[in-house]
Specification:
930 residues, alpha+beta, twelve-stranded mixed sheet, six-stranded mixed sheet, elongated
C-alpha cells in the first residue's frame, strides 16, 4: 500500500467466453452532446432527497487533446447522498465526482473508476481521460472520508459506500451520453484497485445493473486478509487505520476523537483487536459484511482479477478464493498475477494492465463484431522476472500463461524434507521479532526474484527443515504445503511458516518476502496441523535446497506477549510443491523488425551493391606496423555531417606493446567516439585506425585480438561467474581452448568467488568479472572504459593491479577514466584530448614533469633565512618552506643551475624533482576547463 492503498492503473485482461448474463432489453436513445450545466443553488427538495441523489453545482472543463485525439470534457460536481439507509429523510453526505466524455451523439457504455485507500478521484484522471477517448463515459468519485467528499469511512459498508455506487449508477442512467440496456439500467463496468477493487466486487454483488468488473490487488475476505488463520496482521492494519484516522476531507465536524474520518464502530473494533492481538466474534461479523465474500453467490458478471505477487497485505490467496467462487457462478473469470503489489507501492506493469482492462471492457460492454473478436488475453497469466535490464536498471519481465486457472495446488510435486524434532521459544512480548515483509520497504519484495531481499530469523526462535540439494530446477507456482506436529507448553502456539531458497553457498532468499501465520490451539499434548505456505511463483534452481522454517515471531504480526516453548517436528517428511506445468513462459515479444528482416536484408544488400563501388578496396595491411597494437592517423568524425561540429578532428597517436595508455579529456572531448571508431562500431569521416597493421572496419578479423569493457557488462544473476563467462565465450563461436579462462581469471583475481552466483557479488567483484570477460582469449589489445566506476578505494587498487599485471605480459591496455590520481599511478603513457583534438601525448612522467615548480628535498629543518636566500637567487621566482624541504618556482633558471647555487649555499640537498600532480598538468593543458 504505499501511502495509498494500491492505485495501480487499469489493466488489460485475460478473456474467456462471452458473458453468460441474459441479454438485456435494448433501449437505445439518440444521444445528446454534453452541455455546459447551469449553476444551481438551493436546498435539496424532499423528493430528490428520498431518491438519494441530487446533482449539486457543477463545473465543465475540456482536457487538452494530444496527438489528434478528441478533446475530453470533464464535468465536476457534488452529488448529495443519504448518510445511510435507503434514502429516507435524515443526514446527508456530499460525494465529489468527475464525469468524462468526448463529443459525439452516440450513446456509449459507462465505466466507474474507484480509487485506492488514502487516495481520491484525482488519482484517476489520466485513466478516465484515456477511457473516454476510447469510447466510454467515465465517472470517478472520491469515496466517503477522502478528498473533498464528506462523511465517515465505513470500509465499503453496504449501507454507505456500496449504496453510493448504486446511486452513481442511477445518475449515469439519466445522462444522455450513456447507453442504456433498459430504463434506469446503464451499460456499466467498474474498475478499481485495493479499496476501490473491493468496491467493484461488492457493487457487482449488490446491484444487478453492473455488467463487468476489473478489481485489482484487492481483498475477497477482510477477515482472512487482516486476521489470516486468526492471527492479527498488526503492521499493515496499523498503517491502514493510521492513514484513515487523519482527517483530510472538508467535513471536519464529523471527525471525532481519535477516529479521524473512520466510523466510530470501526475504531472501536481496531482498538479491541490491537490490544487483544486477535479478533473477536463482533470484529469478524463487522468485517464479513464489508467483504465481497459475503455476496459471492450474487457476483455473476465477467471479472478480471489482477493480483500482486509482492503483496503481504492482500496476497494471491485473496484472488484465488474470488476466482473459485465466481467460477462456480458461471461467469467468465480471468486471473492475472502481476509483478508488484502493496509491498512494492505499485507495479512496473501499469501500462499493460491498463490495456488489458480496457480490452476486458471492450469485450463485455461494447457491441458488434469488433467487441466479440476482442482479445482479452489468457485465462491465467503470470509476470515472471527475467533478470535486470542493464541499460536502465529496471527488472525484465516475461509473461507466462495457461488456458485455465490452475488454482494454488495444481500438479503438486513432493520434495523430501529432513530434520529432527526441534524445541524453540516465543520471547516475552514477542520481541525481537523475525523480519519478512515490511511496509515501506517493499522494493525489496520487487527484487526477491533476483535473489535480493531482507529476511531475518533469530536463533532459538524457530525450527527449520531442509530438502536435499535439488537435482533439477523446480518452479513452484501456488501454495506449497507441509504437515507438522506442534506442541506448546501454554496449550497454544502462534507460528509463522515460510519456505526459503537456499543457494549452494548457504545464502537464503525468501521468495516474495512472504510468510503464512497460523494459530494452533489445543496443542498442550501435541497436534498435527496442515501448513499452507505463501502462494508464490518462484524457481528453485538445481543445486539449491528448499528450507521450511516455522518461526515464533514476525514483525508484521501480533505474537503472544507471554513467553512460551514450542516443539515442532515433521508429520510427513516432505514438502508438497505445486508446479502448474500447464502454465508456460512465452517468448519475449518480437520487435517490429523481426518480421521486417527479410525485406530489410534485401534493402541492405541493394544498398551495399550500390554504394560498394564508391568505397574502394579494403586497405591492405601495413607490414611495418604488424607489431604495433594501435596507430591512429588523422582521425575525424563530424556530428550529423556538419561542416563545423567535430566530435574528433585530425587525431593522431601511437600505442606500443606493454603500455598502459590513459585516454584523458573533459566531457565532450571525443574519447568515447574515438573508442567506438577504434572498435569498428562507427565509421570515421576521415583518417584511419590500424590495429597490428590492419585497417579497422566493422567486422574486421583483427578485432578478435581486441578485448573491450565499455559501460559495464550484463550478467545472469542466478548463474555463477564461471557459468556466465562460459556462456559469453560460447556465443563468440570460437573454440573453448582459445578462451584461456584460467589465465584471465588469475589476472582478475576472483578466487573461489567464481563459483558463486553473481547476485552475491559486490560491485568490485562484478567489475573484475567484467574485466575477466573482456580478457577472455587474452586479447593483445584491451580497452577499458571507466573500469573503476562505483568501486571503493581497495577495489580501485585491485583494478589497478589487474591492468598492470596484464600489460606486464607484453600486451597493451587503453583505459579511459576521470580518476586522474588513479591514472597517474596505473598508466605509463597518456593521450590528452580536448574538443576532439589531441592536446598532448607521451609518458606520464614527461607530462607531469613539465612544470616549473620543483620540490627540493633537504636533510633536517629549513629556516626562514635559508628560504629567503634561495628565493633571492637569480632565475628563481620564489622559495617557500615545505614539509620535507623547499618548494622552488623557477623564473628563467634551470634545474642544474639551481643545484649549483644550492651546493654553494651549503644546503644539504637530498633530492630534486618536479612538484606537479597529473591533475595540475591536465588542467593546465586544457586551460582549466574540466
Amino acid at each position: 500500500m504505499s501511502a495509498r492503498w494500491g492505485c495501480p492503473p487499469l489493466g488489460e485482461g485475460p478473456g474467456q467466453t462471452p458473458s453468460a448474463r441474459p441479454a438485456k432489453r435494448a433501449a437505445y436513445h439518440r444521444g445528446m452532446k454534453l452541455r455546459l450545466p447551469r449553476h444551481r443553488r438551493g436546498r435539496l427538495t424532499a423528493a430528490l432527497a428520498a431518491l438519494g441523489v441530487l446533482a449539486g453545482a457543477g463545473t465543465w472543463t475540456a482536457a487538452e487533446a494530444t496527438d489528434g485525439d478528441p478533446p475530453v470534457h470533464r464535468e465536476d460536481r457534488f452529488l448529495t447522498m443519504p448518510e445511510s439507509g435507503s434514502g429516507a429523510k435524515g443526514p446527508t453526505v456530499r460525494i465529489d465526482t468527475s464525469f468524462f466524455t468526448t463529443d459525439g451523439d452516440a450513446r456509449r457504455p459507462a465505466v466507474l473508476l474507484a480509487h485506492g485507500f488514502g487516495g481520491d478521484k484525482d488519482d484517476l484522471r489520466d485513466r478516465a481521460e484515456e477511457l473516454a477517448r476510447h469510447g466510454y463515459a467515465v465517472l470517478t468519485w472520491s469515496a466517503r472520508g477522502f478528498g473533498d467528499s464528506t462523511g465517515r469511512i465505513g470500509l465499503n459498508d453496504p449501507d454507505r459506500e456500496v449504496a453510493d455506487v448504486s446511486r452513481l449508477i442511477d445518475w449515469l442512467a439519466k445522462r444522455p451520453e450513456v447507453r442504456l440496456d433498459r430504463a434506469g439500467d446503464p451499460r456499466v463496468g467498474i474498475a478499481g484497485a485495493s479499496y476501490g477493487g473491493a468496491a467493484a466486487l461488492l457493487a457487482a454483488g449488490h446491484d444487478k445493473r453492473v455488467d463487468a468488473i476489473a478489481p485489482q490487488i484487492t481483498y475477497w475476505d477482510l477477515n482472512s486478509a487482516l486476521f489470516p488463520n486468526d492471527v492479527f496482521k498488526k503492521l499493515w492494519s496499523g498503517v491502514f487505520f493510521t492513514t484513515g484516522s487523519t482527517a483530510t476531507g472538508t467535513d471536519t465536524k464529523s471527525s471525532g476523537g481519535g477516529c479521524g474520518r473512520f466510523d466510530p464502530e470501526l475504531c472501536a473494533m481496531y482498538e479491541r483487536v490491537a490490544v487483544a492481538g486477535r479478533p473477536d466474534d463482533k470484529a469478524r461479523a463487522l468485517l464479513e459484511r464489508r467483504s465481497p465474500a459475503a455476496v459471492a453467490r450474487d457476483i455473476k458478471v465477467p471479472t478480471l482479477l489482477v493480483q500482486g505477487q509482492s503483496d503481504s497485505l492482500f496476497p494471491l490467496t485473496e484472488s484465488d478464493r474470488a476466482a473459485e467462487a465466481l467460477a462456480r457462478n458461471g461467469a467468465p473469470v480471468a486471473v492475472d498475477w502481476i509483478a508488484g503489489g502493496h509491498d512494492t507501492g505499485g507495479s512496473d506493469e501499469d501500462g499493460r494492465v491498463a490495456r488489458r482492462t480496457r480490452a476486458w471492457f471492450d469485450r463485455f460492454l461494447k457491441e458488434g463484431e469488433s467487441a466479440e473478436n476482442t482479445d482479452t488475453g489468457p485465462a491465467f497469466r503470470i509476470s515472471r522476472t527475467g533478470g535486470l535490464d542493464t541499460t536502465d536498471g529496471t527488472t525484465r519481465l516475461r509473461g507466462a500463461s495457461g488456458d485455465r486457472y490452475p488454482g494454488l495446488r495444481g500438479d503438486p510435486r513432493p520434495v523430501p524434507l529432513t530434520g529432527r524434532e526441534q524445541r524453540f521459544g516465543n520471547p516475552a512480548g514477542g520481541s525481537p521479532p523475525a523480519v519478512s515483509a515490511v511496509p515501506g520497504l517493499g522494493g525489496l519484495s520487487r527484487l526477491s526474484g533476483l535473489g535480493v531481499g531482507v529476511s531475518l530469523d533469530f536463533p532459538g526462535q524457530y525450527a527449520r527443515f531442509d530438502s536435499p540439494k535439488l537435482t533439477e530446477s523446480v518452479r513452484a507456482t501456488g501454495t506449497p504445503t507441509a504437515r507438522v506436529r506442534v506442541s506448546s507448553d501454554s496449550g497454544e502456539a502462534v507460528l509463522f511458516a515460510k519456505v526459503y531458497d537456499v543457494g549452494p553457498d548457504g545464502r537464503q532468499q525468501l521468495p516474495g518476502q512472504l510468510v503464512t501465520p497460523l494459530r494452533v490451539t489445543d496443542a498442550k499434548g501435541g497436534r498435527t496441523v496442515d501448513v499452507r505456505l505463501p502462494a508464490v511463483d518462484h524457481v528453485f534452481e538445481a543445486g539449491h535446497r528448499m528450507r521450511l522454517v516455522l518461526s515464533a515471531t514476525d514483525l508484521g504480526y501480533a505474537s503472544p506477549a507471554a513467553p512460551a516453548a514450542y516443539t515442532v517436528s515433521l508429520a510427513d517428511r516432505e514438502l508438497s510443491v505445486p508446479t502448474a506445468p500447464g502454465v508456460r513462459t512465452g517468448s519475449a515479444a518480437l520487435p517490429w523488425w523481426t518480421w521486417g528482416l527479410p525485406a530489410g536484408g534485401l534493402a541492405v544488400a541493394v544498398a551495399l551493391l550500390v554504394t560498394g563501388r564508391r568505397r574502394g578496396p579494403v586497405r591492405a595491411p601495413d607490414p611495418a606496423l604488424a607489431d604495433v597494437p594501435l596507430v591512429i592517423s588523422g582521425l575525424s568524425k563530424r556530428y550529423a555531417k556538419s561542416a563545423d561540429r567535430y566530435a574528433v578532428r585530425d587525431l593522431s597517436f601511437r600505442v606500443e606493446r606493454g603500455q598502459v595508455l590513459g585516454l584523458l579529456g573533459p566531457n565532450g572531448a571525443g574519447k568515447t567516439t574515438t573508442l567506438r571508431m577504434l572498435m569498428g562500431l562507427i565509421r570515421p569521416d576521415g583518417g584511419e585506425v590500424r590495429v597490428f597493421g590492419h585497417a579497422i572496419r566493422p567486422g574486421a578479423p583483427v578485432l578478435s585480438r581486441v578485448g573491450a569493457f565499455v559501460e559495464g557488462a550484463g550478467f545472469l544473476p542466478h548463474l555463477s561467474g564461471r557459468a556466465n563467462l562460459d556462456l559469453y565465450w560460447r556465443a563468440t563461436g570460437r573454440p573453448a581452448e582459445d578462451a584461456h579462462v584460467d589465465e584471465a581469471l588469475e589476472i582478475a583475481g576472483l578466487g573461489s568467488a567464481l563459483d558463486r552466483a553473481v547476485r552475491t557479488y559486490s560491485q568490485g567483484m562484478r567489475q573484475r568479472l567484467a574485466i575477466a570477460q573482456a580478457m577472455l582469449g587474452l586479447p593483445d589489445l584491451l580497452i577499458l572504459d571507466e573500469p573503476t566506476n562505483g568501486l571503493d578505494p581497495p577495489q580501485i587498487r585491485e583494478m589497478r593491479e589487474v591492468m598492470i599485471r596484464y600489460a606486464a605480459a607484453g600486451r597493451t591496455v587503453i583505459v579511459s577514466s576521470h580518476l586522474l590520481a588513479e591514472v597517474e599511478q596505473s598508466c605509463t603513457h597518456l593521450v590528452v584530448m580536448d574538443r576532439g583534438r589531441l592536446v598532448t601525448a607521451g609518458p606520464v612522467a614527461e607530462i607531469t614533469g613539465s612544470g616549473e615548480t620543483l620540490l627540493v628535498g633537504v636533510a633536517g629543518e629549513v629556516s626562514d633565512a635559508v628560504a629567503e636566500k634561495v628565493g633571492a637567487l637569480p632565475g628563481v621566482a620564489s622559495a617557500v618552506r615545505a614539509e620535507s624541504g623547499l618548494l622552488v618556482r623557477l623564473d628563467g633558471g634551470t634545474t642544474p643551475e639551481l643545484l649549483v647555487e644550492l651546493v654553494r649555499l651549503e644546503i644539504p640537498v637530498t633530492g630534486v624533482g618536479p612538484h606537479r600532480r597529473l591533475e595540475d598538468a591536465f588542467l593546465t593543458l586544457i586551460g582549466g576547463q574540466a
